[in-house]
Amino acid sequence: MTNYIGLSVTYHDPALAIVDENGEVVFAEATERYLQYKRALNCEPDSLNRMAELIETYCDVTDDWVVAFNWSRKRPFYETFCALADYFSPVGLMRPRFDKRSTFLHKYQIFHMLACQTNTMVKGGINLVRKLRERRPDCTVRFVDFSHHLTHAAAACYGSPFDEAACLIVDSFGDGGSLAYYRYQGGRIHLIEEMKGIESLGFYYMKLTELCGFDWLRGEEWKVMGLAPYGRLDETVYALLKETLAVEGRSLRQRLDRIYACMEQLEARTSDLSVQERADLAFTGQYFFSEIMAQLVNQCYRLHPSDHLVLGGGCALNSSFNGQLLQQSPFKELFVPSAPADDGTALGTALLAYDRDHPQRRPREAILSPYLGSRMSPDRLQDVVRFSGLPYVKHPPDRLCEATAQLLAQGKLVGWLQGRAEFGPRALGNRSILADPRDASMKDRINERVKFREPFRPFAPAILHECGADYFEQYQPSPYMERTLRFRPEVRDTVPAVVHVDGTGRLQSVKREWNPRFYNLLQAFYRLTGIPLLLNTSFNVMGKPMAHSVEDAVSVFLTTGLDALVIEDYLFVKPDQRSH
């Protein structure tokens, strides 16, 4: 038997995945969850204090191990040159000429990212190997590495329900560029073409995030998407952006002289923007992003005509565009994995390593479950029951959903933590905060009392799949909350808390076979209210990852305006809510 461990050693969003001898994914989790440090910047994926537990819990007892990395070990010449020229040191980053640009970002920002990337690649795997030496001193460890974009493609294609598809990867940068096209057939991924060069739609969106007053290092691109529907197209800004980046054939082309001029003008304008002007900038920037993405998607179709598109890379997190994609291309079905960004490449590289050893492996016939992370510790849960002093009821499983649905129907804000955590950035019913979508004030209430975030940030509707077409135009299943669709006009007033200002919602489709307990909760709420959906947002406060441990969950519960907390079969309420 062989254990396959995939490591995402990117400087942001590191992650670890484990695939067993049968090719089944037994564990996948972003490092930020365990560390409770958003994006886990510059952290290794194999945290030393965690590895013993993961090995003992999820790995077979064997002496054969494969450790796979999500970047090619052979680095491009320019990275080696920059390192030798001392560009990656603190002294190097202070050089005045690094204020200039070679793309949308300043050179010192690019060199900082490359320096961090170099360091995390060197560190990745050291802690894992130490623990293996301690627990399996006679084991054999093979090390393999794969192209970064290929690991994105593997996470997306192998997790999809398709046996044939076109695959497009768009991110900030890979081993040599930011864009790659693949063909997926019969369980095999074939490279069509990979773009080389610094041109990057990801870098563009990072800069847009910065111009809107947000921090892309903290992953605040979400805020641009949330703010954009409040704005209007700014023709002057759009004209500037159109001159900076364009699709040319299969590639992106940037005009550096126009980037210089555009960024100077925009930076001067954005130093003191009004709220409406900031929203206009977000709308215009998102509009331009969607325009470029649509051209890339259609180019992908020309390279490999198919009914199915698999989309991966950091730009695949743009749910606003994903909801428009099928209307702007010949593709009939879209699949975006639960973790399309760099955390997902840990899973992709583990599956590629398994695939290399098992060339006869057949593709799965259903989507990959996103519930691949850690469980809540039953021992810590019992400690809360014994020592917290919180009123609680332990419900049998068949009564838990009914009791929780009643609280939700009464307007209570409920933390809901069940089973294994989701792999990827979205809460899909196992690490969620839930609320009644019928109350228009619920959105502001959660933003102010629980999430402590900006009032323009929207909330997602989790809906019973069989009711999806009744609530959304051009409905297709959205298992991972990966696309934004338009609500039907006749239902918007019935669920105002989850309808964004532009009439859309980033939905999660829920089927019984995907998540039985969450499905039963939605059904219970449907029976009580006649509404087959709930407001669903991640169990965290702004700037923090989703809760990883029982202690994390109780901390959020006690320091926010949540009314109730459900962990497995236990329903805790705050003292002033015990009558409910």
Q: Can you walk through the features of this model?
A:
There is one protein chain. The chain has 580 residues and is α/β, with parallel strands linked by helices. The chain has an eight-stranded mixed β-sheet, sandwiched between helices. A five-stranded mixed β-sheet has the order 3-2-1-4-5. It has a five-stranded mixed β-sheet with strand order 8-7-6-11-12, with helices on both faces. Helix 7 (148-158) crosses helix 14 (344-357) and helix 8 runs antiparallel to helix 12. The model has no long low-confidence stretch (mean pLDDT 95).
Name its key features:
3 domains, DHBP synthase, Nucleotidyltransferase, domain 5, single chain, 8-stranded mixed β-sheet, 20 helices, alpha/beta, 19% strand, 5-stranded mixed β-sheet, 580 residues
List the helices and strands and how they pair.
Layout: E1 2-8, E2 15-19, E3 25-30, H1 31-35, H2 48-58, E4 64-69, H3 77-84, H4 90-93, H5 107-123, H6 126-135, E5 140-145, H7 148-158, E6 164-170, E7 179-185, E8 188-195, H8 201-211, H9 221-227, H10 235-242, E9 245-248, E10 251-254, H11 256-269, H12 275-303, E11 308-312, H13 319-325, E12 333-335, H14 344-357, H15 378-387, E13 392-394, H16 397-409, E14 414-417, E15 431-435, H17 442-451, E16 460-464, H18 468-471, E17 484-486, E18 504-506, E19 508-510, H19 516-529, E20 533-538, H20 550-559, E21 564-567, E22 570-573
Parallel strand pairs: 1-4, 4-5, 6-11, 11-12, 14-21, 16-19
Antiparallel strand pairs: 1-2, 2-3, 6-7, 7-8, 9-10, 13-22, 14-15, 15-20, 16-20, 17-18, 21-22
Helix pairs in contact: 2-6, 7-14, 8-12, 10-12, 16-19
